[in-house]
C-alpha cells in the first residue's frame, strides 16, 4: 500500500493533449547534464519506470506500443526501471540524489510526499485540471492521493479499496449466515471465532504480520470510523491515540480467540494461499486479489468492511504516475503520456488487466468496464466503496508514522504487548517524527 504497498500482487479513448495544449509548469531545477531526449528528426524519448511484472507489465507494454504508434513524435521507453514497484521509492530516491532519473515513475501514493519534496518533480495541476476528463470526474480518493498543499504533484495511476471476501462453503459448513452490509466489528470477531476450527486448520480470518504498510493500512478504516485521524489537526502529533487502542483491542480479541492467521511474510501471499486453499473464512483485501480467487475456484462473496457503528468506512490505496523534469521537451512529452494513460479508454484496459478499479466515473460507464464488472463476482462492491473511501494523508512524515504503527500492530498480533502499551510506544515514535522540520 506504501512503506511501499506490497499489499497487492504486482500484476502479471480520449484525445491526448498536445504539447502546446499542455502548457505544463515545470519545476525549478532540471537534472544536471540530462539529455534533452530529442533526436535529429524531432522525436522525443521518454523513460518510464513502471515496476510491474507479469500481467501488469504486459498491459503497460501494450498500452505504450499503442501510444507510440499514435504519437509518432514521442517514443516512450517502457524499460520498467529494473525493480518492482515495492522498491520504487528507494530506486527513485537514489536516482534523484545522483541527478539521473526517469521522466515518469510509478510511485505509491503513500510515498508521494517524500518524493515530491524534490524540485525535479513536475507540477501537474494545470494539465490535469484542464484535461479531457473533468478533474471532478475522478473518484475523490484518486484526487486526494495526488494533492499536496493544494497542488497536483502526480497523476493517479491505479485505484483500489478494501472489502471483506468470504468463503461461502466454509460459512455453509459451519451453519453461519453470510455477512451483510452494515455489520459491526463485534460481529466480525464473533463470526471469525465461530468459523475457526483448529482441528482442521481453519482460521476465521488473517492479517499481515510483517509491520509493513500491508499490515498498517488495514487498521486506518477502524481508526477513522472511531473518529481518529492519522495526523492531528495541529500537525504536531498523531490523531489516533485513543482510537488506535480500541482498534488494536479488536485485533487482540482475534488473537485471544486464536481465530486470526498472522502472515509472517511480506505481501500477504501466505495469507491468501490459506484463504484460497479453503482454510480461511474471511480476508480483508482488494480487487487485485479477485483474479487469483477466481482461478482457485473459491465459491466466494464480497461484503463491505464492518464498522463500529453500523456503517462501513474503508480505505483506498491509490498509486501515481509521477513526472520528473528532464528538460522542457521530455517533461511535456511525459505529461502527454500520463494524461493519455488516465483517460477512460486506456484506464479501462489497464484496470481490467491489473485487477484494479476505474479512476473516474467516466471509466466506470464504459461498456467494457461494465461487462467486466458484471461478470466478476463482488467487483461492484469494491467500486461502490470508492464513493466514500478515504486515503492516507499525503504527508512527508507518513512513512515514519506507518513504521511505528506497524510495530505496534505486530506486537499485538504476536501477543508481545497490550494494545495500550503498543500504542503508547507508537505515539512516542510517530510524534517525534512529526516534530522534525520538513
UniProtKB/TrEMBL annotation:
Keywords: Signal
Gene3D superfamilies: Periplasmic binding protein-like II (3.40.190.10)
InterPro entries per UniProt: Bact_solute-bd_prot1, SBP, TAT_signal
Domain of life, per lineage: Bacteria
UniProt xrefs under CDD domains: PBP2_UgpB
A family per Pfam: SBP_bac_1
Signal in keyword set: yes
Membrane-crossing segments per the record: none
UniProt signal peptide: 1-27
Entry annotated with the keyword Signal: yes
Protein name as annotated: ABC transporter substrate-binding protein
Organism of derivation: Streptomyces armeniacus
Amino acid at each position: 500500500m506504501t512503506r511501499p504497498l506490497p499489499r497487492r500482487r504486482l500484476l502479471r479513448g480520449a484525445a491526448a493533449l498536445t504539447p502546446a495544449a499542455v502548457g505544463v509548469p515545470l519545476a525549478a531545477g532540471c537534472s544536471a547534464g540530462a539529455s534533452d531526449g530529442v533526436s535529429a528528426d524531432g522525436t522525443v524519448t521518454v523513460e518510464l519506470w513502471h515496476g510491474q511484472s507479469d500481467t501488469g507489465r504486459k498491459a503497460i507494454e501494450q498500452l505504450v506500443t499503442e501510444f507510440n504508434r499514435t504519437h509518432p513524435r514521442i517514443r516512450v521507453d517502457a524499460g520498467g526501471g529494473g525493480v518492482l514497484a515495492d522498491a520504487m521509492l528507494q530506486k527513485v530516491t537514489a536516482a534523484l540524489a545522483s541527478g539521473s532519473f526517469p521522466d515518469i515513475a510509478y510511485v505509491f501514493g503513500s510515498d508521494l510526499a517524500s518524493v515530491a519534496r524534490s524540485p525535479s518533480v513536475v507540477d501537474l495541476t494545470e494539465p490535469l485540471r484542464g484535461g479531457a476528463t473533468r478533474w471532478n470526474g475522478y473518484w475523490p480518493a484518486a484526487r486526494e492521493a495526488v494533492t499536496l498543499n493544494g497542488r497536483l504533484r502526480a497523476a493517479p495511476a491505479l485505484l483500489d479499496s478494501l472489502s471483506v471476501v468470504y468463503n461461502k462453503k466454509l460459512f455453509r459448513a459451519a451453519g453461519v449466515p453470510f455477512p451483510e452490509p452494515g455489520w459491526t466489528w463485534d460481529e466480525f470477531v464473533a463470526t471469525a471465532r465461530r468459523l475457526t476450527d483448529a482441528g482442521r486448520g481453519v482460521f476465521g480470518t488473517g492479517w499481515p504480520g510483517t509491520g509493513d504498510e500491508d499490515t498498517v493500512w488495514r487498521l486506518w478504516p477502524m481508526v477513522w470510523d472511531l473518529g481518529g485521524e492519522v495526523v492531528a489537526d495541529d500537525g504536531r502529533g498523531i490523531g489516533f491515540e485513543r482510537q488506535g487502542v480500541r482498534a488494536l483491542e479488536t485485533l487482540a480479541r482475534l488473537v485471544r480467540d486464536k481465530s486470526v492467521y498472522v502472515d509472517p511474510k511480506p505481501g500477504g501471499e501466505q495469507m491468501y494461499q490459506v484463504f484460497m486453499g479453503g482454510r480461511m473464512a474471511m480476508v480483508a483485501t482488494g480487487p487485485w486479489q479477485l483474479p487469483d480467487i477466481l482461478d482457485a475456484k473459491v465459491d466466494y462473496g464480497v461484503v463491505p468492511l464492518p464498522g463500529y457503528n453500523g456503517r462501513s468506512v474503508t480505505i483506498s490505496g491509490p498509486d501515481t504516475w509521477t513526472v520528473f523534469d528532464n528538460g522542457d521537451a521530455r517533461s511535456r512529452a511525459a505529461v502527454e503520456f500520463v494524461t493519455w494513460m488516465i483517460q477512460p479508454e486506456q484506464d479501462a484496459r489497464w484496470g481490467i488487466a491489473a485487477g484494479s478499479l476505474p479512476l473516474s466515473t467516466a471509466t466506470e460507464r464504459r461498456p467494457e468496464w461494465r461487462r467486466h464488472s458484471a461478470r466478476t463476482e463482488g467487483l461492484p462492491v469494491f467500486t461502490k466503496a470508492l464513493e466514500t473511501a478515504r486515503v492516507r494523508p499525503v504527508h512527508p512524515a507518513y512513512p515514519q508514522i506507518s513504521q511505528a504503527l506497524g510495530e505496534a500492530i505486530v506486537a499485538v498480533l504476536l501477543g508481545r504487548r497490550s494494545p495500550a502499551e503498543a500504542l503508547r510506544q507508537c505515539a512516542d515514535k510517530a510524534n517525534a517524527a512529526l516534530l522534525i522540520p520538513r
